[in-house]
Amino acid sequence: IKNKNPKINLDPKHQHKKFRTDYHRRAFELKQRKDLNFKVPVRISTYHPLVRTSKKLLEKIDNSEKRLSYWEVASENDILPIHTNLKLRVRALRFIDTLIKVVEAMDCKIIFYCNSAHVEMFGQKTEINLRQKVYRIRTKDESGWGWESWEASDKLEFQAGPSFRKKSWIDNTKRKLEECLPEIIAWIEKDSKYWHDLRARQAIEEN
Residues near 22 by Cβ (< 8 Å), separated by ≥ 6? Predict the structure, then answer.
């Protein structure tokens, strides 16, 4: 990754602003950068090539007479991890399009590995996933027998990292997922830098 992260000179009114964590501070700094556009547009006339290709593949799944699954298509194609119904898909496409453009503006990139999409920063891969939040509903009858069902919500959820330490951001009453984009990028950057530095130290120790 190139050094495109110069020290940010915060507006004087923000000099003493308090942050919950260093990564929240970093998110605020990134948001001040004029070369990074975190605003997700209401409408996009021309999608990023990766988004455009994924949109066509998702439509292929929708229209498949053989009921193709996402993973069947992902095994043969580079497709972005967008798992929503049609109602939320346009919003999801706009979100992932904006994320990709921010990543590339930071001289990083999206890569595909083992049928999954990853953000590559500092030479490290962070798996990403964008889905419609689904809630598990547990129900019991009068005899005590229970079962589970699943109920789709109208919320978008973005996930980053491997399954054993996955970080999630989701729509809530205070803010939409789109407003979390600076935090998402800051977290991926922080996590990637941690693993890059750790592996560099391990390589030195082994030698």
Answer: 190
